[in-house]
Amino acid sequence: MSNINRRTLVKGSLAAALAGTALSRAAFADADPILLGVSGPLTGPNAQYGTQWKQGFDLALDEIQAAGGINGRKLAYTFEDSQSDPRQSVAIAQKFVSDPRIVLELGDFSSTASMAASPIYQRGGLVQFGFTNSHPDFTKGGDFMWSTSVSQADEQPLLARYAVKSLGLKKLAVLHLNTDWGRTSRDYFNNAAKEYGAEIVVTEGYIPEERDFRSTLVRVRDANPDGLVLISYYSDGALIARQARQVGLKQVICAASSVYSPKFLELGGDAVEDVHVGTRYFPEDPRPEVQKFIAGFKKKYNGLEPDAFNAYAYDAMNMAAAVVRIGGADRKAIRDAFAKVKDVPSVIFGTATFDVATRRVKGAMNAELVVRKGQFALWDGKPT
Amino acid sequence: MSSWLDYTINGLIVGNVYALVAVGLALIFGVSRLINFAQGSIYLVGAYIGWVAVVQLHTPLPLTIIFVAVVAALVGLIIERFGLRPLQNSVRIAPLLATIGISFVLDQLVMLTFSPNPRALPSQLPDVRFQVGGGTIGPLDLLIAGVGISSALMLFVFLRYTKLGWAVRAASQDRDAAMQMGVDVNRVNQTVFGIAAALGGVSGLLVGMYYNQIDTAMSLQATLKGVVAEVVGGAGNVPGAVVGSLLLGLVESYGVAVFGTSYRNLFAFLLLVVVLVLRPNGLFASARQAPPEPLTGTFIAPSRPVRIPRWALLVVAAVFAILPLLPVSFYMLQTLINAWLLGMLALSLTLVAGTIGQVSLGHAALLAIGAYTSALLSLTLAVPVGLAIIAGGLMSAALGTILISPSFRLRGHYVSIATLAIGEIVSLVILNWESVTRGPIGISGIPPLSLFGYELTSPTSIYWFSFAVMVVLALLQARLLGSHLGRSFRAIRDDDVAARAYGLSLNRYKSLAFIFGGFAAGVSGGIAAHLYSYINHETFNTQQSILALTVVILGGLGNVVGAIVGAVALVGLPEVFRIAAEYRILIYGIVLLLLVRFRPQGLLGTM
């Protein structure tokens, strides 16, 4: 105990020395923006996703500022590069937790980095808002863990319905990323597909660095499925589609929404023609939230088409703004505000409301798309 | 049956892809006895130069290839002139580390120029496919095979029948003798680097076209697979590198055929370990080739270690011990906790790499074993956390030593490559052994650190706990180094032939070193597991192994205080540069290069 007292003493005297500056700063406190902390990858193997986050965040912030900010104050974020490495995300967590200006944290990208930092956020009483953390245990880290990450329990049955019911595929080959996301998704998909009456004839997991799928596809061919299901990101999804066509597989391909990106079309070329994608949103969706997002994004980034990760980040920032609007600049009030926000307009969810029991958002939108003439289009119901 | 034909063809095709990288690596190793970890980065540069040529300049294919080769060769010449030539009279480890630094710098430069988003690199060859077996082959497959095989042949002819080629071989056999015979060794080195870089660049281009995509993260995988292929074939042997690559491709393909996709890389690294155990110099090491040098002087810089007075150490230790009482932020404490955990790993590595001379590139595997053991014991069997961490340390000591023991008869670079493979194998076993390790889902809900029933959850208490553990391990190790046993370790490092002649059992002493080192690393991994509460197979990866090696070389090999100083510096540097965001890894790489250039024996010198 004496230690703690001494420490407070030392801290107290230092604080007194700084009191002058602190006072003058406090007078201007309302002019300072409300600050969010972002922990995510800007360098390292996942750097691309951090860059995409920034694009989504910045667009959302432009709109929030234009609409008068948060009760007259601006909203801003500070982005700390974690490389999605747990060692760095825990240090960033301590930094954020002990920085009183930060009222809410967004990220990290991977579950490894996020969940390593969760105990620190939980103990520090700062909400960790993991909007790409689909690991089933992420929100079990404590009541300061909230997520708008697409719940795979919601999404995968919809993809299974698309493949089995709409497209009539009876024997499926499932290729999935062998990560926490891919594994969880695969289990939800396989269970749902079996309930719809399909048979899973082969399941293959691959590591994210994999580039060569020819031998995997021979295994797939030998299992003789009606269709291939890709639980992939856009870069590996495009690779698999290309190599499947190259080795002569002509089966129907269905892919999870995570391939939804203009990059999927660019990287896949002709090989992704007629690929079916169950997705959260698509540009022709007439809902005003979606049209506003796409128009704003293209305007801000010289005609660049947004993709799923841009949309997740955009939605997450809007959700954060909605929560801060209720909770103010108080961390605990912000935590409680997550339970109170209702029907926040959102690209991915239509309107988003949290399920207080799971601390996740329920009921994602779903559209059945197909790639036609190099573009994503709403599926017209015709078999390919 | 036809499927086996397909698997064979696929294996040969991907083997060709590996060969493109492996040939360049073999050429450089042949001349400089250097594993060029920057080769993958040159491959990356080549891919992006190719993208500029194809997509923006619309050059036809032959011109694209020439353009990429020339630019990549220039990059190679710059690396040789400014990155490696200043180090040629330095210890062997210095250029090795420099290539790692160069790869950081190149990767980051490409990423900053082109953004990390993957890009499509369209193939400039017609998209026709020929039916072979149940599968198909296209013109690009044939071009890649052609480039791989013809470059190996041309290099073979060059080395065997041209004057410059003789000079290259002379320089590789005995640098000093070659110089005395009038060979311009620098020109030889330049030539080789230029050729290897041109090959590396072209391979990036072709592989990018083959997959129709390039991204800035592709360099490390290329280096890893290239190194495996090269070493399987026999390091420095150019035709061997081609055969090694094809073999690697086949083994992977058959591995997928029999066991499934998720086992693919497991077979690649198992092949490497098996080859190294049966033929320690690779498959095609010729009898006439000079035997690989013993570690005498290979990695160890001659230096007088900086002697730090005992009182100074005590003062510094005391300052760190009372640090949490001072007004410091939790962020700083957390950063230092990371440094203490890395310090324990570095103590382990500095003992095996520095004191007994077994340079390990797979040390993260020891962390993983300790972490999983401790996490699973405390979670499923409710073993108290303190005991579980000790059990983790013991498990790392036992399992780590058993796994690494096949590498005991290897020498020089082969030890580091074998340990690299063992590190990858452990990670892949964790990924695939789902009934025990829970596979990719990882282990969550690991109980927090606790001691005698008291939970340590505040950064202050975790700081003191990890600092105390590290200090105890460091004191034990310092005591060990001063003892008779420590002297025997160093004798084996300095001259294993003499040590054996003197009656020291090499295997037994190496085992002892790994047992002690494995314990320290396992404890570090165990503490990390309880600190994070969630671990999976990616928590302890190859980058962590490379970081640990950088730490011990920075501090001075075998130097206990140096390992800790290195850990604080290398955990601290990226944090200090955190404000530089995207540029920080670039800065980190440059700082690493400067350190290697001006202080190759490490900050505190080798013990």
Task: Tell me what you see in this structure.
The complex is a heterodimer of chains A (384) and B (607). Chain A contains twelve helices and 16 strands. Chain A has helices at 2-27, 47-66, 86-97, 111-124, 152-166, 180-195, 214-223, 234-246, 262-268, 288-300, 308-327, 331-340; strands at residues 34-40, 75-81, 102-107, 128-129, 145-146, 171-177, 199-206, 227-231, 252-255, 276-279, 344-346, 350-352, 354-355, 360-361, 367-372, 375-378. In chain A, strands 7-6-8-9-10-15-16 form a seven-stranded mixed sheet, with helices on both faces. In chain A, strands 2-1-3-4-5 form a five-stranded parallel sheet, sandwiched between helices. In chain A, strands 11-12 form a two-stranded antiparallel sheet. In chain A, helix 11 crosses helix 12 (331-340). Chain A is globular and about 65 Å long. Chain B is mainly α and 607 residues long. In chain B, 71% of the residues lie in helices and 2% in strands. Chain B is built from 24 helices and four strands. The longest helix of chain B is centred in the N-terminal third of the chain and has 31 residues, at 2-32. In chain B, 60% of the residues are buried. The chains are: A alpha/beta (384), B mainly alpha (607).
